[in-house]
From TrEMBL:
It comes from Methylobacterium persicinum. The lineage of its organism: Bacteria, Pseudomonadati, Pseudomonadota, Alphaproteobacteria, Hyphomicrobiales. InterPro entries: Phage_phiJL001_Gp84, Phage_phiJL001_Gp84_C. Residues 193-271 form the Bacteriophage phiJL001 Gp84 C-terminal domain. This is Phage protein (TIGR02218 family). Coiled coil: none annotated.
Length: 291
């Protein structure tokens, strides 16, 4: 059972309440934003919670045990609140959100309802619905190593140890044949497919600072998995990082880094379970494959 702050409990006991919801949002880049479904701005904890953002609580849920609880917050995209370009650019991915129930006549009288993070954001016709995930969502995160054939490290991280600076190329945009297809000029000659599955980081233009995943790279053509959040113009600059499909053959032949491979390439798959031991009857008898 939740203990209510004395001032908040006294306000509820009055019978007539003046309550609204507020959301305190903190992005991973350190930017803090406040929103409220009240009709005027409210300030508490040093943060202005802006009204007129079109934000409203759409749905909330609570689960017993370790099930992930959370809710939705819906609103309109506007210059006073969240913008389409910022959402598409991933600026709000994983942002922390505090949900408050606030007495709008005295914002210091408030109750913290939940702490969570922003999950999926759905956008359509100038509006959005953001999923708020409760703290139990952290239990779904992969921690530690997993037993699988492919590598569990990311190219260039502390376990991989590849120097990614040797596997990067700078370039600029020459043309945009399709929304997610770029014709580019690279600063050095590279083999076709080297950057397929890799990463593009914009260093100039409207998308500067944002990153995108590459679908493929062939010659002077680069295809992205998603259309860039903001308009791409001729001359916009970027840096490409090579792709890695996390197979042992790629780690060995492309990066000469098999000694740091973080997978189990010789683990048996489903075919090993179903096939018979060589030289035996077509049944599995528990014998060795190698004798």
């Amino acid at each position: 059972m939740r203990d209510l702050p004395p001032a908040f409990a006294a306000h509820l006991a009055d019978g007539v309440t003046t309550l609204c919801r507020c959301w305190s949002l903190r992005r991973r880049d350190g930017t803090s934003l406040g929103f409220t479904d009240h009709d005027r701005d409210l300030t508490f904890a040093g943060l202005v919670h802006a009204a007129r953002t079109g934000l409203d609580a759409a749905e909330a849920s609570a689960e017993a045990g370790f099930a992930v609880s959370g809710g939705d917050v819906a609103g309109a995209l506007s210059s006073l609140g969240l913008t389409e370009a910022d959402i598409a650019g991933g600026l709000y991915d994983g942002a922390s959100v505090e949900t408050w129930l606030v007495d709008w006549t005295n914002p210091e009288t408030r109750l913290l309802l939940d702490i969570g993070t922003i999950g999926e954001i759905r956008r359509e016709d100038g509006a959005f619905v953001a999923e708020l995930r409760g703290v139990a969502a952290c239990l779904d995160a992969e921690i530690g190593r997993t037993y699988r054939a492919t590598c569990g490290a990311d190219l260039g991280d502390a376990r991989c140890r590849v120097d990614v600076s040797a596997w990067q190329a700078t370039g600029r945009v020459l043309d945009l044949p399709q929304p997610a297809t770029l014709r580019v000029s690279l600063g050095k000659s590279v083999a076709d497919g080297l950057f397929s599955g890799g990463r593009l980081v914009w260093t100039g233009g409207a998308n500067a600072g944002l990153a995108a995943d590459l679908r493929l790279q062939a010659g002077d053509t680069v295809e992205l998995w998603e259309t860039p959040a903001r308009r791409v113009a001729q001359g916009d600059t970027f840096t490409l990082t090579a792709g890695c499909d996390k197979r042992l053959a790629t780690c060995r032949d492309r990066f000469a880094n098999a000694v740091n491979f973080q997978g189990f390439p010789h683990m048996p798959g489903n075919d090993a379970v179903l096939r018979a031991v060589p030289g035996s009857e077509p049944v599995l008898d528990g014998g060795s494959y190698f004798r």
